[in-house]
Amino acid sequence: AARAGCPGPGLLLLTATRGCMSSIFFDNQLQLSDPGSVRCAAWSRGEVAPFLAVAENNQVHVFSEDGEEVLEAAQSRHVPCTSLAWHPHAKVLAAGWEDGAVTYKVSDRGAPPGASERDDREVHRDSTVLCIVFNPSGSRCVTTDSNGVVGVWKTDAKGMLSQMCHYRKSGAHDMVVFRTMMPGGEPNLENPPFFFGGEQGTIFLADDFGLCGERYKVGSPLTALEYFHEKDMVIVITKSVLLCQFGLDSENNLINEAKLKLSCGSHPETLQGVWAGPGLFATVSQESIVRLWNLADDESYILSLQGVDEQNSLAGDKVTSVDFNPRKRVLAVGTRDGRVVQWRCSTLSGTPKSETCWQVLPVHGASDCAITRLTWGPGESLMHLKTERSNIIVNEAQLNTALSPPYLAVQTAPSAVLVIHSQTDARSVIKSEFRIKGLSLAGPYVMLWSRKQVTIYEIHQHGVHIEVYSSFKHDSAPITAAVLIHKGGSDGAVVMAKGPKLEFASLKGTVFASEIFAPEHEGVPTCLDVNGEYLAASTKENVIRVWKVRSKVEKHGTPRRFVGADESSLGDIRSIRINGDGTRVSLLVDQRLAPSSALGSSSILVPDSRLFVYDLDSDSFLTYSVGRNRVPTSHCWEPRDPRLVACEVVPQALAYMGDVGQKTPTAARTPKAGTLVGLGLADPEEDSAHMVVTLFVLGAERIVQQDAIPCVDPDRGGLPRMPIALTVPYVFFARLGEPASGEAEKQEPATAISKATLRDFVGLEQVDADTTTRLLHFSYHLACGNTNEAYESVKGVRSAGVWESMSKMCVKTGRLDVAQKCLGQMNHARAAGALRTCQEPEPEAKLAVVAVHLDMIEDAEQLLKKCSRYDLLNQLYQACGEWDKAFEIAKTKDRVHLKPTHFAYAQHLEAIEDVQGALSHFELSGTYRTESPRLLCALGLTEDLEAYVERSEDSQLHRWYAQYLESKANLDAAAREYKKAGDWLSLCRVACFNKDLDRAQKICEESQDPAACYHLARHLEADSRMKDAIHFFQLAGRVSHALRLAQENNFDGDLMSLALSADPQSMAQAAKYYEQRGQPAKAVVLYQKANCQKRALELCFSARLFDALRKIADDLSADSDPEVLAKCAEFFMQHNQNDKAVHLLSMSSQFEKAVDLCWEHDVQITEEMAERMTPDKSSMDPAQRAQILDRMAKLCKKQGSFQLACKKFTQAGDKLKAMKSLLKSGDYEKIVFFAGTARQAEIYVLAGNYLQSLDWHNDPDIMKNIIQFYTKAKAYDKLASFYDACAAVEIDEYRDYEKAGGALREALKYMMRAAGAGAEHDVRVQTLQERISIVDEFAGIRKLAKSDPEQMVQTCEKMLSMHDIESAVRVGDVFAQLVEYYVEARRSEDAHRTVERMRERGIILTPYLDRTLLETIYKAVGMPVPDAETGPQPSAAHRASEGDGVDEEIEEEDDA
Fold first, then answer.
1. Which of 293, 521, 951, 1221 counts the highest number of beta carbons within 10 A?
2. Cα separations (Å) of 1329 from 29, 776, 1313, 1371, 1439?
């Protein structure tokens, strides 16, 4: 129903509560002669013009949703009607009768009576028809009777029917379900088979082709037969309360059978069941609970009547009936006491898993007897209730309200309206002759209307008297919506939406104009609203149109579809309001979720949590989200300000959230699939209270909140109330809660209206119009955050409330300067003074001070968090008494003030006399040592104080208590406490006070406490017990006092031991005492201990104490006085102790003298001595330092410390000498390292020469280093000689002339580099080239031995005849080549002759020929092997290097 609009500019109002407070339930009791005889009832399927068919005895009545009987659709026969069913897509009613007749009748309004009636009496002749069921497409109908006959009919939407087949089975069958899912998972909605069963407990499967067979048997009559579409499962509940599940495969064989015994209380015969979601079956059986069985997951849970409301009004009630609305997602139950309880499912996808998925809705009291049957009608608002005494259609509708200042009207009953004069509070009640569908208020006229009739009332005498002005009916078409327009005086117009057109009629009902809508493009108008002279309408296709109504109807703007930028729908409009100047239209919207297999075949409308505003000037939509899990339910515009709008907001679990997380209003966006619905219960962070939210629309940019008023009645204990109108400065509410103490019948309408003042108008309710306008501007700028403009708007207003609101906004916007002015206007001296004295550097901290004085504690908290002033936040929590938060902040963010927080809380607990708590927190604060005793003493709890101290292990606490006892002269107890505290001084002091010196001495001996010993020593000194006093002074560590007493009393025996343990100053005094007493030995010891070495040496020299002098010298260090070191060194030189003298000279920096002393007396220099004699680089001239180091290095070399000499030569800067010294050490690794770091050619050559003296031919690393050093030194002649030596080794050791040739070629390469320009004329180069030629020639002889032996022999003979052959090839190798050839060629004589030639030349045979070969040769010639061999011949290596060795003699330097 369209809600009446408000003339003039309007304020949009939204309200919220647990249900929909702005909707009420109209109970339409059906006019039946015998309600108890009703056997069955059925709702039509379509939402348009829904009908309820009721079978009463032998008559079938059809009622509209308002409870009015449609007489032309009634049926009557001579026998009772036993079953009813409506066609799923048409207003065709099928009725079964007790005599077996089945009738079909079209029940659309306007159809000729009886023109569309069909009946059949043959199939079920003389049997009672028990069940009529249509398939989902409406193409088939199945009927059953009491004799087991099952008929299958072909039907259509026009009421035509024809029999297709029938089956006859034993027993009565009263339950039929269609199998809408094929075994393969394909849906079959057009012509599915069906299951049927009844009293025999047998389930049959049949179709319309004559096929029927038994598929399951349970052996007990059926209570329920249901089909689980998603799983293709049949659900059976028997009267023995057994739940069975089974399925059929493609061959109709039984599969997936399961059985479960249900719990159903003590009345199983009353069990009712219904699907409450996919796979979720709900059952009731006169218990106080609803049982829900999750068949998909094999789990169950309950919904209880206990605690559904705060008063627990359903205690003891029982559930008697149940039904589920899949579109609204609401499970409704009827109770024994006539109440209707509803739960809304908060999940859309899947099955609700637990009771937390259901949100309880307000309870509706419908009857005073048990509701035996409850059935939801089409759509979301209709319900049929059947009791023993009545049948009721419950229609949930929006409560109608209207505003036209100074009058407002609110519907209080289905046929009653309360009219109130807002200024005089005059009230009058209008009783209508018809059920009110809507109302409208304009000027002095009130219009009430229903679908067929309009009545206009005129208000006289300020609302005291109301009389009928006109009344007229419209039977041509039902009125969908209507509004009243007042043009002034008695001139006005009634605008009515009828089908596809709007009719404009006079106040008497005469139509003078009309506006036609195109149904296929624009849709039919569904919502109307008028504000002043502007009219707005929305259609079923979500098109928005606006007109300006004056003397004639003028279009205002262009039609606008409710679509986003991408031309997709933004939702379905359910309510429309227009503001006073026709520039904006506010909209409440539902979002339609597409049908799915999980949700059934019909779509679900979910309320959108956003308020939409259409701005005509910019042709754009703005949105404002009222919060998570909250929805707007009603809205209106304020009469005097076209910017101000308000809405009623209610919490709702199932709500469309739009752009989740969007906090600021923006241009409307198109909904996206998958982000449509916010599921679950309300977010605890959101304010879920039922409230009115007032908003300002800022042009075409954004929407901001102005105020929020809770919809609770403070005069009635916080009961809910519904906002009905807003006109500045008030919001008017209707009290809809039931009065307490059973006064519902006595409650007068005059007491049902209350009002609340807007925040910015508190205290200014009676101001003039100009001030009201200024306050509206103030409120607008304040909401926008324009602090300066807000201040200018109300600069001259004298209202503390306005300035308080202003100052609060300054806190929110951070305008500290304006806040100071506001505090001055408020005369809030305390806040202004606190702000002036606040010295905090952060502006947020100063704003927090203002917020605290304005009781904006939460804002102050946020400001302090923003500037991270957790210390001030801690103080704020303490001041507010929120100690838990204070401790949390102190522990996590303000650790430095954790103990002060505990101390402050302890003081708080002390103030409220919580002694134990105070003691505990004094301990946590660390102040318990003084505060806890103070607290207990102040309260006179001396015994508790003693017990508290006794339990504690804190020494300071025991000391305090001991002092307390001592002050009370209880010395024994004080001594015990001092002992527990470990306060030995006080314990000794008490003993001395009691003259118990023995006990005092025992205390000091056992404790060894210095303070106690000192106190006792002073006491003994005063008592002339000097020995004991000295002893305790010593124990106390006060040796100076002990020395003083020993000197004063001539205790020389004790003086030395005391002095040795004293400080240096006391030692020096004691030494002086001994020196005066003629005991120099003791004086020297004490002077030395006191670091007075100079005086000790003087005393040693004067007294000739040589032993003491040596001891002093041993203790000297580099930090000692240089003069003392010099004297000691001179002393040791005089006594020939040169090593000690050198040591002292080095410490005294006399390095040159120390080195000279070492040379002169050949003092062995160690590494430690060398380091001490090495001057620092910065201590003297570099040349002088180098001379000292050079002399030291030479001495080290002379003494054989070559490595130390190398080090000192290096420090002196002479690396060549350092290398020569290191070579003498023979340390290969250090030589290689030093040579690599020295980077001098001479050193590289020295290192290479040295390495050649090692076993380089067996160590590749040595050979590599030799080559590397010679290369770095560019000593190519040395490198050539080395390669020549390598060639000689290859010849002598391995007879490998090929490798030897390679080495000689390397030698030639470097020899040529050494010779430089003209190298080809160098003799050494020429000689080397000749040697290479000879070596290469000999290396090729072996190959000739196989290919050309004679040539090989000739070549060898030629070489033997060469006079300089030995420079390149060993002669023995040439002979050996010949001998080996001759032996291999078996030329023994030639071999023997060649061997003899070798012997003649004096060549040793064994290096060249092995013993076996010689024996073979000599045996062949018949001669013995010679025993003696001639002497050794020079090797090739010797010959090659003769006169060109690499050894180098290292020159010896002078010693001085």
1. 1221
2. 138, 120, 14, 19, 16
DSSP characters over 723-736 = EEEEETTEEEEE--
737: phi then psi, degrees, rounded to nearest 5: -70, 150
- A 10 A CB-CB count for 1412 gives 8
Q: How far is 600 from 41, CA to CA, in rounded Å?
A: 23
Please name the amino acid found at residue 234.
V
Backbone angles phi, psi at 1089, to 5 degrees: -65, -30
Do the beta carbons of residue 122 and residue 149 sit within 8 Å?
no
d(CA 1433, CA 1416): 25
Alpha-carbon distances, residue 562 vs 480, 520, 622, 624, 1290 (angstroms): 20, 16, 12, 16, 106
Burial class (CB in 10 A: 0-12, 13-18, 19+), 1154: buried
pLDDT at 460: 85
Strand partners, 197: 175
H or E stretch covering 949: helix 942-951
H or E element at residue 677: strand 677-678
Q: CA-CA distance, 1208 to 1217, in Å (whole number)?
A: 10
CB 321 within 8 A of CB 272: yes
- Residue 132: its pLDDT value, please? 96
For residue 1129, the model assigns a pLDDT of: 61
Starting at the earlier edge strand, list the strands of the sheet with 427-431.
401-404, 407-413, 416-421, 427-431
The mean of the pLDDT values for the chain is 79
Q: Which of 1139, 1168, 1440 is nearest to 1303 (CA)?
A: 1440
**The pair of three-digit structure tokens given for residue 1127, joined into one six-digit string:** 């004297």
3-state secondary structure of 401: strand
Name the DSSP letter for residue 331.
E
Q: Helix (H, G, I), strand (E, B), or coil: what is residue 42?
A: strand
User: How confident is the model at residue 160, as a pLDDT?
Assistant: 80
Residue from 502, 522, 259, 367 nearest 27 by CA: 367
d(CA 627, CA 598): 28
Cα distances from 917 to residues 921, 935, 948, in angstroms, run 6, 12, 13
324 vs 339: CA distance, rounded Å: 16
| Residues 521, 526, 530: CA angle, nearest 5 degrees | 115
pLDDT band at 211 (very low <50, low <70, confident <90, very high): very high
Structure tokens at 668: 């409307």
User: Hey, what amino acid is at 246?
Assistant: F
> pLDDT tens-digit profile of 597-649?
433 445 677 889 999 999 999 999 999 999 888 889 899 998 888 999 999 99
Residue 181 has pLDDT above 60, yes or no: yes
Q: How many CB atoms lie within 10 A of CB 1150?
A: 20
Asked whether the predicted pLDDT for residue 854 surpasses 50, the reply is: yes
The CA distances from residue 37 to 41, 75, 388, 412, in Å, are 12, 16, 9, 33
Residues contacting residue 281 through CB under 8 Å, at least 6 positions apart:
226, 235, 273, 274, 275, 292, 293, 295
CA dist list (Å): 186 to 178, 232, 598, 1218: 14, 10, 14, 102
DSSP string, 825-850: HHT-HHHHHHHHH---S-HHHHHHHH
pLDDT in tens, 425-463: 888 899 998 888 899 999 889 999 988 899 999 998 666
What does the pLDDT average to over 1353-1365? Answer: 79
What does the radius of gyration of the chain's CA atoms come to, in whole angstroms?
A: 61
pTM: 0.56
pLDDT in tens, 889-919: 899 988 899 999 999 998 898 888 888 888 8
Residue 1015 predicted with pLDDT over 90: no
As a three-state string, the secondary structure of 609-656 is: CEEEEEECCCCEEEEEECCCCEEEEEEEECCCCCCEEEEEEEECCCEE
Of the candidates 321, 274, 314, 307, the one whose C-alpha atom is nearest the C-alpha of residue 293 is 274
Q: What is the DSSP letter of 1131?
A: H
